[in-house]
Amino acid sequence: MKVAVMGYGTVGSGVVEVIEKHSNSIPIKTGGKALEVSRILDLRDFPDDPHKDLFTKDFNDILNDDEIKIVAETMGGVNPAFDFTMKLLKAGKSVVTSNKELVAQRGLELLQAAEENGANYLFEASVGGGIPIIRPLTQCLAANNIEGIAGILNGTTNFILTMMIEEGMSFEEALKIAQEKGYAEKDPTADIEGHDACRKVCILASLAFGKHVYPNQVETEGITNITLEDVSYINSAGGVIKLLGQIIYINDDEIAAFVSPAVVYNGSQLASVKDVFNAILVRGDAVGDVCFYGPGAGKLPTASAVVADIIDCAKHTERKKIFGWGEGAEDYVVDYKSSIKMPFYVRAKASCTKINSIFDEVKYLSRQGQPSDEVAFITDIMTENELNEKLSGIDVINTIKVTNY
Question: Distance (Å, rounded) from C-alpha 258 to C-alpha 333?
Answer without folding.
Answer: 9
